[in-house]
Amino acid sequence: MTSAALAFSDGAVIAKRNLIKIKRVPEILIWTLMSPIMFVLLFGYVFGGTIDIPGASYREYLIAGIFAQTVIFGSTFTGAGLAEDMTKGIIDRFRSLPMSRSAVLVGRTASDIVYNTASILVMSVTGFLIGWRIRTSLLEALGGFLLLLLFSYAFSWIMAYVGLRVTSVEVVNNASFMFIFPLTFVANTFVRSGDLPGPLKVFAEWNPVSAVSQAAREAFGNTGSSLPEVWSLQHPVAYTLIWVAIILAVFVPLSVRQYTKKS
Amino acid sequence: MTDMIRTAGLVKRYGKVVALDGLDLVVPKGTVLGLLGPNGAGKTTAVRILTTLLVPDEGTAEVAGLDVRAEPGMVRERIGLSGQTAAVDEHLTGYENLDMVGRLYHLGREKSRARARELLDQFDLEEAGNRPAKTYSGGMRRRLDLAAALVAEPDVLFLDEPTTGLDPRSRALMWETIQELVRGGATVLLTTQYMEEADRLADDIVVIDRGRMIAHGTSDELKTQLGGERVEVDLASSADIPAAMSILGGLSVGEVQVDEQTRRLTAAVTGGADVLRQVLQRLADKGISVVDVGLRRPTLDDVFLTLTGHAAEEVAEHPEDKGKESEPGASKTREKEAVR
Fold it and tell me: Where are the alpha helices (DSSP H) in chain B?
């Protein structure tokens, strides 16, 4: 078997193992799905009336941003899961087996797609209840969901690297909080990037989180009437895919190397 | 006979700490090597190098004829690892754990499942097989862990302190299980802090301290190296300790060891039962009353105590000198470690 095929089949075995844990301890999933619901309701009702988006309702505009933020936060699951694994004896078992050196990472990032899919589903239902509607076709909307999942998958490789670098689950959570919060707020997730002041505006316009939000928004038909002026937001799908490629090209080998050498 | 494990001059440093300081090991096929030493002696480091988890700084290591550095992937296909460095997934059932390991050894779906059932049966875990491993007792977990190491029927088995932390009953059970494997012709490297364990399970024993081999031989050879038996006398009163010490000292080949708390004196002797009679006679002459007295063959504890109570280098170079200038203080600390 080639090493890629081996990584895939061994990764599937590890992914199954991770999913069994969700089955055995469903509380983890239930509580992590509560926060997206909370976010949808909180932003929908607190900011819903105060922020004006020309040509669209703020609640509709908001949903894609919350989706983006939530799936990115979902990637901390990967980091925390790996950090936890590394502290346990099971990782020595894995290392002493003739399995692919990247299987633990491939399996972990793959099982987190399942988690992110569940959280998107929950948020969609919540959004629907407070008035969010897909104004395009179902197929286009699916494209938006796929792009969100793809971006979060790439992002989970960054968190995988973080999870392997730090020494405990708490550090992963705190470190990622410091990093993800500004990244997902200084973007067009909750406000239009054009409304932000000077340097923040530039950062927000080129922030890949803005691009993926914008792409999802277009896929759902929630953009409103004003058009963005920068290339990154005029071509949000292409810009997002470029970032996905860059992140994977950098963090997949980096994480695998870190996993291999850590002992 | 083929050697299944072979190391030469293994060195591993962690910063300034030297975990392994030139270790040479040879384990012929179908035999059990007991690697005996206190905490921090380098036992686990040796196992981690041989199981490809760690790269040595110097020296060579071969497992099943394969260089662990050059061909770690091939080595992993031939070995099984169990003990304190390996583990099971606590959220998975016993069956799921073994099935997963089988799949990762690439046995295929059918074979993995069959093997999982077979091992659960063999290790008396059939009923527990469908419960998550976190509900298992310590002994059951260790058995499952050992079963996981055997999934692919490895040529070489590494057991890193397989019974550390187990209660006496689980330990006895584990010993039986390992003895059965050994009878089946497995090649095993076993690390342990328990002399009794090495005595019972190993064909060959290597005593290591601070990353170096300080003694090597069968358990009988190690006992013979140290000379005769031990006379143990438990006194009724601590006031008699000095007098009893001088009596024993006159008949002993080494220094007399004293445990003040239990009022037990231990002396290495060569004359067997005659010496015991003399000891009793002289104690009676002085009017020293004795609670208990006995003559016993030296245990591996004695071997270990005497060996590591010394500067390791000296003992390694002059094994015949040991037992003569051992410091009671140093020995006592060692004893506590060994007991724990």
Answer: 43-50, 72-78, 94-104, 109-122, 138-150, 168-183, 195-201, 219-225, 241-251, 273-285, 300-308, 312-317, 328-339
Give the A window 46-75 contacts with B, CB below 8 Å: none
- Best CA proximity match to B144, nearest among B105, B172, B170: B170
Which of left, alpha, beta for B106 (phi over 0: left; psi -120 to 50: alpha)? left
- Provide, as residue numbers in chain B, all residues whose Cβ is less than 8 Å from the Cβ of A93: 81, 86-88, 101, 148
- Angle between helix B138-150 and B94-104 (nearest 10): 20
Check CB contact under 8 Å for B87 and A103: no
A44, containing H or E segment? helix A26-46
Q: How far is CA A177 from CA A144, A148, A149, in A?
A: 25, 20, 20
Q: How far apart are CA B147 and CA A238, in angstroms?
A: 51
- pLDDT, chain B, mean: 84
> For the residues of B211-269, what is the DSSP string, one character each?
TEEEEEE-HHHHHHHT-S-EEEEEES-GGGHHHHHHHHHHH-SSPPEEETTTTEEEEE-
Place of tokens 């004006």: A52
Structure tokens at B24: 């040479």
Q: How many CB atoms lie within 10 A of CB A237?
A: 17
Q: What are the tens digits of pLDDT across the range B64-80?
A: 999 999 999 999 999 99
Question: Which chain A residues have a beta carbon less than 8 Å from that of B73?
Answer: 98
A97 and B79 in contact (C-beta within 8 Å)?
no
Q: Is B132 within 8 Å of A24 when comparing Cβ atoms?
A: yes
Place of tokens 């000077």: A198
pTM above 0.95, yes or no: no
The HSE-up count of residue B308 (CA atoms within 13 Å, CB side) is 28
Please state the ipTM of this predicted complex. Answer: 0.88
Give, for A126, the enclosing helix (H) or strand (E).
Answer: helix A103-129
By DSSP bridging, strand B230-235 and strand B290-296 are antiparallel
Whether the predicted pLDDT of B325 surpasses 60? no
Output b/e per residue, A153-174; b: 16+ Cβ within 10 A: bbbbbbbbbbbbbbeebebbee
